Amino acid sequence: MVLRADNSLGKSTAVKSILFGLGLERMVTARSTDVLTSAMRERLIYDVESKAETPVLGSWVSIEIEGRAGQKATLTRWVKDPQKEPGLIRVQEGGGLSAGSSAPSTDYFVGRKGSVANPRGFHRWLAEFIGWTMPDLPSRDGQLAPLYMEQVFPLLFVEQRRGWGGIQAQMPAFSGVADVRRRALEFLLNLDVGDLESQRQQLKAREAALDERWSTEVRAFRDAHGDRGLMTAGLPESLTTTWPPPDPPQVLQSVAERWLPIDQYLSDLRAEAADLDSGESGRPEAEDSEKELSALSEEADSLRRSESLLREQLIRDRDELRAVEERLVALREDLRQHQDLVTLETLGSDQLEAIHEDCPVCHQSLPTSLLGGSLQVRTLSPADTVAYIRNQIDLFETMRDDSSRALEAKRERLGSLRQRSADLRSQIRAIRTDLVSSENAPSAGELARRLRVQNQIDQLTGVDERFLELLAGLDRLATEGKEVRAALARLPKDQLSADDGEKIAALESSFIEQLHEYEFGSFFDEALKISREDYRPRREDWDLQADISASDSIRVVWAYLLGLLEVSGLFETNHPGLLVFDEPRQQSTEMVSFAALLRRAGSDANAGQILFATSEELDPLSQMLEGVAHHLHSIDGYLLQPVSE
Amino acid sequence: MTAETVREQLDVPFCFEEQPDPVPAALRPERRVPLLLLLVAKCHGSGASWKVLQLLNWTTRDAPNMELLLSLQRHSDIPDRPIVRFEPALDRALDLAVGLGLLEQKTSRAFRLTPDGKALVGEIEDAGTFEREREILDRYSGKMTTAEADRLLEWRRR
């Protein structure tokens, strides 16, 4: 279809109304109604003779669209209306404009949160109508972000003002999708490589979620049992697929100077309890009690000394850990500074090169460091220093983790010592009570001992049970993690599939063929190709558009976007079969080239609908369109007219 | 292995090659000269005095140093922090930068960027390097003058 009208008569407004009607104006502007001129919002001039301005009371855009399966819908969106906001789009099934359909209509919203995901969001409806499933893709912050329709449409719609600056010249970046131009192309051409990347990211997100759950569960267990003299051993802190580990994880209990596995300690305690239950150790003689009291007092003194020593060690260890952390901060700062140097060296600055040369006056070597003094050392290059600092950072990180772990273990030991001290004090009090009480009375010492042992058995049995629950939970996570990692390993590398290769080859062939037809003049085209990495036109690995004349740059946009449409006629793609060129004859492109474009587009009519909006003179345009399948709408006067009451 | 065999094994020619030493970036001319140029660029166009450069150099070493400077500007003090510390490496970098034609020395030890120096400052900014130092310097709005530096340095002695 060719829409012809002279300049400044509303042609571009009409073309941009299509974007507005489809709710895609954010492709070119941040404010929705700004996409349309004031003729739609404030004052309309519709009489060529008088050029009188008429205030706009109300205006709207209605478009009838047809899907691949022949289904039709009529979309209406109000630009100015006392009741209806521009954020509303009314969808009527059937051809409301062509056949006057009276089918029921449904209102949707656009341009606000949820318009893609919400069931009443217009872009969700439009995606379903076109048959698109908009993918979630890796974003710049490592998360997943949706690809929006506004990011695909620059491949289908070239707006007059800024659209001809290059392929995908107008690309909104609001979703944060990384490498969004490449991703939009992968989506439009329905390349497997895009799906693979999407799958990879989803699997990685699942893996990260499993890892997070793993470390949360391990941390929660440790936090719940802190300060009781307990440590876990052999328990990985992050997701592992080597499960169960070769050395089974266990909980250790600090007992005096040793760390005993909780099972062993529990069985010792149970033996002690059984011994107490057997009644063999009845009420002890006063003499034995005296001896025990003395032994316990000595042990309590020894414990106090150990506690005091351990506290000092803890202070020293904390200082050491702080020193390691400070060293890490300094190393990271030194690394950053050296990385700056490497960057500057890579740029090859002449002024900086001079630093490594000899003195221009006395021809002696310039100092390689600012240490001062006559002794000059041979300094390691910045690049080697970067590698050296990275090694140091690795080592210091290991030291920090190790020191933290040792510190935690000492804190636990201190907790255990305190508990033991409290037990001892309670035992001492009980024995003293025994010594002054009647011989017939039950032994308070025995009772206290029984109570302590039973209490410890109960507590540690609870810990043991929760540890087994933790291991069972980690087992499930490890199994799931194994599946995710296996699925990741099975995914082919980020390479084009055979189908992808054929699509890109077809695009390349169409692109080069069209450039021939459009008399592309910047250079011979033997070295032209479509990159297999970012799918953009290249010449000997250089971005083609960076190196050609302005008019050839326009030819490149014609050939590339039309090429995408042609590929959709040969392969299964996501191309909706729509291409809109607003004033494609930019930069005084030759008439002969434009005629060739119209012929080529005419021959592609079966692949979809191509709309040209142009201000070419009618006669030469009609000549160019001879023998080309087309519908020409030539408008005399202003395109926008008032609607009668 | 007998002692004799060991001696025989060791009695062979060997060569010793001195390995280069890693030097902190803060002592490398290729870092300190560009950083010095950034400091001079932060000063009023009439020239940066040696004292101003030592002051700005101290602020770029650590963000809290700049905090103190900004605080003094607002007439409030953070008494437990020093306003400035002298760094000999800066003097050596100054001599080197003058010798390389990146700075010109005016009378009374005041320095100004030469066209080559200005070009290098442009390259540093375009390359996105010295990001942290430039962030710190940007916190001080406008250019630093000798009079303002003197005022800040004398603040505690009033």
* Amount of beta strand of chain B: 5-15%
Label the structural class of chain B: mainly alpha
- What helical percentage do the residues of chain A reach? 40-55%
Largest sheet of chain A: 5 strands, parallel
Name the overall outline of chain A.
elongated
Regarding quaternary structure, what we see is heterodimer
| Number of helical elements of chain A | 15
Written description of the protein model:
With 645 residues, chain A is α+β, with helices and mostly antiparallel strands. Chain A has 15 helices and 19 strands. Chain A has helices spanning 11-21, 38-41, 122-130, 149-152, 180-188, 192-224, 262-278, 286-347, 350-353, 382-436, 444-490, 498-517, 550-570, 591-603, 618-624, and strands at residues 2-4, 43-45, 53-55, 59-66, 72-80, 88-93, 105-109, 136-138, 144-146, 157-158, 230-233, 250-255, 258-261, 528-530, 537-539, 542-543, 578-582, 609-614, 632-634. Chain A has a five-stranded parallel sheet with strand order 10-17-18-1-19, with helices on both faces. The mean pLDDT of chain A is 86. In chain B, helix 3 packs across helix 4. Chain B has eight helices and three strands. Chain B has helices spanning 3-10, 29-41, 50-61, 63-73, 88-99, 115-127, 131-139, 146-154, and strands at residues 48-49, 103-106, 110-113. Chain B starts with a helix and ends with a helix.
